[in-house]
């Protein structure tokens, strides 16, 4: 039986299925522009047809078939008859794909394709977020802390590079996979982060994105079971997602220190802790393993007051040595505040070049609050509210500002 149609249902389905449709068409036709444009055209048709007939039982399959037909129509219209497109025209939706390598999932195959070494690292991540996660250019721009026009140009140049360099849409050989791994892990993590705390809109989360990131991380884990950074990333996502049910209340974000820990998902925590222990035994520390270990310390504490902040700070010190950067330093400052006091932490935060980052303003506001500088804290709360588009986070920050004396 067809599902009831409404705009919200259509938006949810298209967001869920976008990556599948684009990945399938990219494999089939070998052209990113064709894949994206055909997916967009299929949505236009869906808006018209589903409004009249209802949503079909298999909307993803419907969108893929319709987008495939749109792509074929375009190829015929433009008479793109080289060998590649002639072959694409001969493929039907019923034709099973030929085995092309160790990755059999279309979306993960496209992740590795977009992370080709010929592309600069920032372009690999941005392009994959656009094509696989279906994130908009503004969403990706926020993730990279760059202007929206610059991010749009970055994605356009990356697609042009793939076409001009004839980068193949195929899975790299097993021996080549590790070289692509850093960018792939960054993609999965950024997709998860956008889902875990949405950059804008009335909904504070986008569960479809965080769930998709975990799914991709699990596939990576199956593909590269001896790679500790893959295990570390999966552990990090699981330990973070385990707190999902306790992170919002009454339309507000609930900070870690105030969350109801009884609402945390213990099965995800146990799985994450097991992966962290496996990483420790491997003894090849990396960014995601250390972040996972930090989250393991937090989720091991029965109460916020029981948190081993000395261990958290030691882990951030290790992370700063192998992956230095201002965001790491900002998060480390939170641990410094618990160990050495807010004055010491504030001196660290004040030196960081993150004045356009909402978390910098929010962190600084809390530290100023703790040292009794209420007027300055009020200004920082205002700046943090202005710098985030997440309604639940804005509500929390606004309440904290009102509580200042």
From TrEMBL:
Pfam families given in the database record: DUF6596 (PF20239), Sigma70_r2 (PF04542), Sigma70_r4_2 (PF08281)
Gene3D superfamilies named in the record: 1.10.1740.10, Winged helix-like DNA-binding domain superfamily/Winged helix DNA-binding domain (1.10.10.10)
Superkingdom: Bacteria
GO MF annotations in UniProt: DNA binding; sigma factor activity
Span of domain DUF6596: 180-278
Residues annotated as domain RNA polymerase sigma factor 70 region 4 type: 112-162
All residue ranges annotated as the RNA polymerase sigma-70 region domain in the record: 17-79
Keyword entries, A-Z: Sigma factor, Transcription, Transcription regulation
Biological-process GO terms, alphabetical: DNA-templated transcription initiation
Family of the protein in this entry: Belongs to the sigma-70 factor family. ECF subfamily.
Protein name from the UniProt record: RNA polymerase, sigma subunit, ECF family
Organism in which the protein naturally occurs: Nocardioides terrae
């Amino acid at each position: 039986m067809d599902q009831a149609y409404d705009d919200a249902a259509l938006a949810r389905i298209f967001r869920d299925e976008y990556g599948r449709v684009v990945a399938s068409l990219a494999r089939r036709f070998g052209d990113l522009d064709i894949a994206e444009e055909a997916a967009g055209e299929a949505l236009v048709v869906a808006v018209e047809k589903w409004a009249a007939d209802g949503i079909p039982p298999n909307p993803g399959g419907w969108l893929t078939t319709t987008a495939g037909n749109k792509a074929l129509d375009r190829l015929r219209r433009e008479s793109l008859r080289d060998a590649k497109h002639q072959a694409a025209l001969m493929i039907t939706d019923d034709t099973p794909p030929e085995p092309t390598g160790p990755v059999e999932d279309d979306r993960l195959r496209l992740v590795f394709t977009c992370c080709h070494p010929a592309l600069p690292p920032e372009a690999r991540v941005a392009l994959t977020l656009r094509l696989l996660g279906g994130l908009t250019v503004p969403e990706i721009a926020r993730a990279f802390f760059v202007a929206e026009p610059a991010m749009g140009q970055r994605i356009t140049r990356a697609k042009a590079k793939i076409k001009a360099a004839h980068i193949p849409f195929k899975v790299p050989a097993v021996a080549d996979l590790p070289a692509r791994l850093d960018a792939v892990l960054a993609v999965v993590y950024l997709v998860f982060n956008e889902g875990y705390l949405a950059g804008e809109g009335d909904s504070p989360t986008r569960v479809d994105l965080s769930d998709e990131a975990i799914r991709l991380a699990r596939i990576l884990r199956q593909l590269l079971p001896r790679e500790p950074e893959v295990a570390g990333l999966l552990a990090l996502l699981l330990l973070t997602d385990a707190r999902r049910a306790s992170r919002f209340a009454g339309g507000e974000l609930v900070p870690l220190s105030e969350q109801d820990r009884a609402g945390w998902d213990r099965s995800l925590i146990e799985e994450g802790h097991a992966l962290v222990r496996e990483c420790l035994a491997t003894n090849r520390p990396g960014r995601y393993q250390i972040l996972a270990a930090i989250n393991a310390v937090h989720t091991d504490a029965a109460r916020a007051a029981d948190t081993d902040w000395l261990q958290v700070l030691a882990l951030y010190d290790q992370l700063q040595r192998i992956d230095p950067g201002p965001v790491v330093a900002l998060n480390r400052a939170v641990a410094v505040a618990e160990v050495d006091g807010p004055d010491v932490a504030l001196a660290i935060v004040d030196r960081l070049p993150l004045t356009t980052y909402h978390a910098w303003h929010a962190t600084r506001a809390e530290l100023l609050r703790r040292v009794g500088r209420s007027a300055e804290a009020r200004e920082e709360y205002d700046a943090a509210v202005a710098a985030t588009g997440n309604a639940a986070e804005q509500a929390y920050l606004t309440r904290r500002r009102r509580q200042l004396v």
